[in-house]
Design goal:
CATH architecture of the largest domain: Alpha-Beta Complex
Largest sheet: 5 strands, mixed
Number of strands: 24
Strand content: 15-25%
Structural class: alpha+beta
CATH superfamily of the largest domain: DNA methylase specificity domains
Helix content: 25-40%
CATH topology of the largest domain: Adenine-n6-DNA-methyltransferase TaqI, Chain A, domain 2
Radius of gyration: 28 Å
Length: 418
């Protein structure tokens, strides 16, 4: 016996579940006219230039409004393309980028992987943008599981979304836009702080800008005189991995200037095995990469962790003492442009580039006194913490926006309209 689903007061049942009585379920094609983009002939280079935005899937999903694109058209290319007016809503309908969307900030064109909705006067383009964004993952399922998923024009036009009256649409879109503006402001601030940190690194780590109170001459050292190298795990088979003792994986080193202690993998280590354990202050280098710019990426362990090991695709460098290099300072120095340039010149290979430990030990570094290093490290750490706090604020804003979208765009929470 089927139980009748309870519908709360003020709601009705719909194909998309319970919705407010005043709301409707409409197809995308009922909200505006849908058009598919097209690409001007690429053989004629005169079709391309710097004047008009030409949207591809990679240009969508970055922000609500489309203000820049990877490619642009000339006036000739623009005139033979299907034009979408300012305010048009663009939506990617093919490949792994299905669901990416944006609103035209000016008259523009797009390639054929994108459908555009020219929204009618009864609907808000921003509201429909938010509805499609909320339902992007469900929409992807309509494309099927073929090698190259495609959402054809008729399928796109048939997508069902929830539609309140225009006044409520605008109210919801305006509220969500407030969060978008806060997110955008925070993202810009993060970009500014990152640029400031990069500038500080360039100035402080080269001595172009000195820390107040320090004027001593910097000294040159060969890395080999400051410590020695050691290898990562050896003699391991596939069966040894997955449990046991923690070890630092390759990507933890490649992606981080400081080892992330929440990101370890595990390996079985027998009692009689001779494996090198890593220690606080050790500096790790990746051995090889597909490009010379990415070989020899460095990361420093700034935590005391017992029985921690190193993956076999990297090697460690252990300082004799911390009287010449401060560990926190080293986490910035060995990722700085000045040191990365030296590493790039050392890399060898054709299809894959490798770093020789012996060659690395012959590199020279020019360092300030340990006291100045310590202060430089603290200045850069402070800049890093500022960025970290902003990133947390950004994550919180994004989560708040998601939560609002889930309740406002489904009618579970209603706004008081004047």
């Amino acid at each position: 016996m089927n139980k009748t689903q309870h519908i709360r007061p003020g709601f009705k049942q719909s194909p998309l579940g319970p919705i407010p009585i005043e709301w409707e379920v409409k197809k995308v094609c009922e909200c505006g006219k849908v058009f598919t983009g097209n690409t001007p002939p690429t053989k004629d280079i005169n079709n391309y230039g710097t004047e008009y935005l030409f949207v591809s899937p990679n240009d969508l999903g970055l922000s609500k409004y489309i203000t820049k694109t990877g490619k642009k058209l000339s006036e000739k290319g623009f005139n033979i393309s299907r034009k979408f007016p300012i305010g048009s809503l663009l939506f990617t309908c093919i490949g792994s980028t299905i669901g990416k969307s944006g609103i035209a900030s000016e008259d523009l064109t797009s390639n054929q992987q994108i459908n555009a909705i020219i929204v009618n006067e009864n609907n808000s383009n921003e509201f429909i943008y938010y509805q499609l964004s909320l339902n992007a993952e469900k929409i992807k399922l309509l494309a099927g599981e073929q090698a190259v998923p495609i959402l054809n024009k008729s399928q796109f036009e048939s997508i069902k979304i929830l539609i309140p009256n225009l006044i409520e649409q605008n109210a919801i879109a305006n509220l969500l836009s407030t969060w978008d503006k806060a997110i955008e402001t925070t993202q810009k601030l993060i970009t500014q702080k990152k640029l400031r940190k990069k500038w500080l690194m360039q100035m402080l780590l080269t001595g172009k800008k000195r820390v107040k109170g320090f004027c001593g001459k910097w000294k040159e050292y060969y890395l080999g005189s400051l410590g020695s190298t050691y290898t990562g795990l050896t003699g391991k088979s596939k069966e040894d991995f997955g449990s046991g003792k923690p070890y630092i994986p390759y990507l933890n080193i490649f992606n981080n200037a400081k080892i992330d202690k929440s990101n370890f993998d595990y390996v079985t280590i027998n009692e009689k095995e001779k494996q090198n354990e890593v220690k606080y202050g050790d500096i790790f280098f990746t051995i090889s990469s597909e490009t010379p710019d990415e070989v020899g990426m460095a990361s420093v362990l700034l935590d005391n962790i017992n029985e921690l090991y190193l993956n076999s695709f990297c090697f460690g460098f252990r300082l004799k003492n911390f009287l010449t290099i401060d560990p926190n300072f080293s986490s910035y120095y060995f990722r700085s442009d000045i040191f990365r340039e030296k590493i790039s010149r050392l890399s060898q290979g054709a299809t894959r580039y490798n770093l020789s430990k012996n060659s690395l030990m012959k590199l020279s570094v020019i360092l300030p006194q340990i006291e100045e290093q310590s202060v430089i490290g603290l200045i850069l750490l402070s800049a890093e913490k500022e960025i970290g706090l902003l990133n947390k604020r950004l994550d919180k804003l994004k989560e708040q926006k998601k939560g609002l979208m889930r309740v406002l765009l489904t009618g579970k929470r209603r706004l008081k309209l004047i």
